[in-house]
Design goal:
Helices cover 89% and strands 1% of the residues. It is built from 4 helices and 2 strands, in the order ββαααα. α1 packs across α2, α2 packs antiparallel against α4 and α3 packs antiparallel against α4. Keywords: Coiled coil.
Length: 359
């Protein structure tokens, strides 16, 4: 805020407006400024030493005003930007930007870690599912092997039963042949032995009955043999089906093992990718920290250099002001000397005129 100054002509207080304009040097009515201008014009137009001093003083005033007008924006900018508050604001802005970049890098790192954890969880679930699948396939393979063993045992049992039925059929055929031979021998015997005929007839009937029984036993054995062959075929089919099931179970187990190997390879690849991404994020974070540190050091160096330049300009401004003050002092001394010389000249002229009047 600008403070009130005194009018250069009448010495009254001149109120100032807030803003960046040049301060008012005269009263706002304009009369003092016009009167001062006329006095300066008269003094500059005066011949001799007084006019020269007036022109020199006016030149120094213009030089001071121009220098002050030229240095005022620079001083204001330096005060705004190179002051402790301005430097702290710039440092705070750079720190905020560095913090934002570090926060972004931290967020990226957290995302990478989250993806790594998700990949590990998925791999764990895949391994668990693969273990369950392998266990189920092993159970199926064991069940298929048990079924194949049971089918083989049943086929062996049916083969034994078929062999026993064939043996019984052969025995029945032999008994039927023996009975038929006995019946034929009994029929060819002499009719003279009538007492024995009845017994022979009875024996023949018994032999025929035994032959019929043997034939029935043969037919039963044949049917049992057919059933045994059918059961043997069924056992062979069951054995083939069990072998096919075992082969399919082995194939499924091999496929499950291959799938587990692929899942393990994918898990290892995802872990390596996540580790590489985490390493890149760490390098980026370190680079950001190095860049922010370098930028902060550069800003501090620039602030120190600007402060030094501001101090140099302030010193030069003080030197100019001192030179202006010295020039003004010299002008004041010269003006006093000129006034004294003018007074002495006028006194001498008055004395000379008085002497001339006496003469």
């Amino acid at each position: 805020m600008k403070t009130d100054i005194l009018c250069k002509h009448c010495g009254a207080i001149v109120p100032q407006k807030a803003g960046r304009g040049r301060p008012r040097q005269y009263c706002p009515e304009g009369t003092c400024q016009g009167a001062a201008k006329r006095e300066r014009d008269l003094r500059r137009a005066s011949p001799g030493l007084e006019g020269a001093l007036a022109r020199a003083e006016d030149l120094y005033d213009r030089m001071e005003a121009g220098l002050a007008q030229a240095l005022e924006p620079l001083a204001r900018v330096l005060a705004d930007e190179m002051s402790p508050a301005g430097v702290e604001a710039k440092v705070s802005a750079i720190n905020a930007e560095a913090a934002a970049r570090v926060a972004s890098a931290s967020t990226d790192r957290e995302d990478a870690l989250r993806r790594l954890r998700d990949a590990q969880a998925a791999a764990t679930r895949a391994e668990a599912a693969h273990g369950e699948e392998v266990t189920a396939l092993r159970a199926e393979l064991a069940a298929a092997r048990e079924a194949a063993g049971a089918a083989a045992a049943q086929a062996e049992r049916l083969a034994g039963e078929r062999d026993a039925a064939e043996t019984r059929s052969a025995q029945a055929e032999r008994r039927a042949a023996d009975a038929h031979a006995e019946a034929t021998a009994a029929a060819d015997r002499s009719a003279a032995d009538r007492a024995i005929a009845a017994a022979a007839e009875t024996a023949r009937e018994e032999a025929e009955a035994r032959a019929a029984q043997a034939l029935a036993a043969k037919e039963t054995a044949a049917r049992e043999a057919v059933v045994a062959r059918a059961e043997k075929d069924m056992a062979a089919q069951a054995r083939a089906a069990a072998e096919e099931e075992r082969t399919a179970a082995v194939a499924r187990a091999a496929a499950a093992t291959e799938s587990a190997e692929r899942a393990g390879a994918e898990l290892a690849a995802s872990r390596e990718a996540a580790a590489r991404e985490l390493a890149v994020l760490r390098e980026e974070k370190a680079a950001l920290e190095r860049e922010s540190g370098q930028a902060l050091r550069a800003l501090r160096a620039e602030a120190a250099e600007a402060s030094a330049r501001a101090e140099g300009l302030a010193g030069r401004l003080e030197d100019h002001r001192a030179q202006l003050a010295s020039a003004r002092s010299e002008v004041s001394v010269l003006m006093e000397r000129a006034v004294t010389a003018e007074v002495a000249r006028r006194a001498a002229e008055a004395s000379l005129a008085a002497l001339e009047k006496k003469d």
